[in-house]
Amino acid sequence: MAPCRTCRSRKKACNGARPECSTCRISGRQCAGYEPHVKGVFVNLDATTMESRMKSLIGNAIEEAKARKPEPVHVKNPRQDNLMSTTALSTLDLSPGEFQTHFLALWTYFKEAYARTPSCWSVGVSNLSLDSKALDMALISLATIRLSFTGHGNNYLVFSLSAYNTGLQAFRRILQSPRGESNPQLVVISLIFTLFEASQRQPTRIYESGWEGHLTGALALMKCQGPGRFQNGGFHVAFKKVREMAVLLAFTKREGTFLAESQWMEIPWKMVEKTSRDRLFDIALRMTTLYSRECQNSSRQYKEIYDDLLAWKRDWLRSEIFVSAECPNSSSLSLSLSLSDTTLFPNNEFSYTSAEYTALLLLLTHMTFQPSNVPSNPNLTTSTKINYPETEVQPLRTTLQTILTLPCFGRALSDAPGITEGRCRSLFPIWVLSQTTCTSNAGVGDYEDEWWGGLYGRVNFGVG
């Protein structure tokens, strides 16, 4: 029988009487009532204080995160002095200090194992933690599913699924509450659930998972709340990550998206300046409209986007990232259209963005030229096609394949499950390659030839 809040804080025996317990009534204290009954799932780094039946599962699940924990991390949260009142803590039998330690051990490990760039979304959403049980459990489930891929049996997986189930229940309660749909935390939680579902599948088979349902839910909530809710902080970072995945979803479904509307390209950036990548995805969203089944295309629209891509490329190469001290190869970089020499790539962010840019240029070239052996865009008539050179498609494919073999993409060219920032950012380029299959797959070696050769069938199974 769970004690009341007052007896628990005083460490006194409680008879559980309702509405107030006898211990409080006899001692003349006000009974603070009882916590709602929720089956909490969480870790405890000190296994000696846990119930015996949970020691093995949870103790093993946290061992590696604890062993790899970096220098102590201090929570920088304006609510730090009042953590006991947060939803996340009130339903768990842990002190505020314990909860912070456990959560930070897991999430810090995830950021180290997942993130490859300083601007990664996992870094930006950290300031939203320790405020909502649903979000905390979603983050915990994603962190532990990442640990489950390290080959330590099913302990991590079982724990991650338990945390996911607990977070999903809490998410539904928020959603069903009055004005719950207006809570931007739900968009962030849906984002985490999307990544959780996708990470359990092979990168080329995520379309068979539940990622689309969670992502569609995140987009519906986002549209309901309006662009003004995602202008700064962790919500803005999460918005950009959802937008990135929405581009992939729109292309795979051949449907337009509300994110291509001008207000969604402008209002979320009222308080922050757009990055080069933000501007690149503005162009990508315009392309989703052209690629949709409903769009009536014209050669002028294609030409405008083509020119905008080339202009974006020139501005990007002139940007400050190439003249910073951390880019020793900056003087060797050219403003030419070729990105085939990957030895000049100065950092991971440049590699990722190069892959995304090349993928967009390849897809646009494919859409407007469309070799006879590739399914064509039914909305693009012969009279509206732009006559790009036939040889342009294959060199772009070869360049993109070469970029995707860089170490920062992790196991992007593997069909094993897993999740890193590099693998996430390889999803769209790999999908583009699957849509632009040519007769020849020459390019980056025998292993890659075999892998690329079967790409169309693997990626497109379950799409649509």
UniProtKB/TrEMBL annotation:
<keyword id="KW-0539">Nucleus</keyword>
<keyword id="KW-0238">DNA-binding</keyword>
<feature type="domain" description="Zn(2)-C6 fungal-type">
    <location>
        <begin position="3"/>
        <end position="31"/>
    </location>
</feature>
<dbReference type="InterPro" id="IPR053178">
    <property type="entry name" value="Osmoadaptation_assoc"/>
</dbReference>
<keyword id="KW-0805">Transcription regulation</keyword>
<protein>
    <recommendedName>
        <fullName>Zn(2)-C6 fungal-type domain-containing protein</fullName>
    </recommendedName>
</protein>
<keyword id="KW-0804">Transcription</keyword>
<dbReference type="InterPro" id="IPR036864">
    <property type="entry name" value="Zn2-C6_fun-type_DNA-bd_sf"/>
</dbReference>
<dbReference type="Pfam" id="PF00172">
    <property type="entry name" value="Zn_clus"/>
</dbReference>
<dbReference type="InterPro" id="IPR001138">
    <property type="entry name" value="Zn2Cys6_DnaBD"/>
</dbReference>
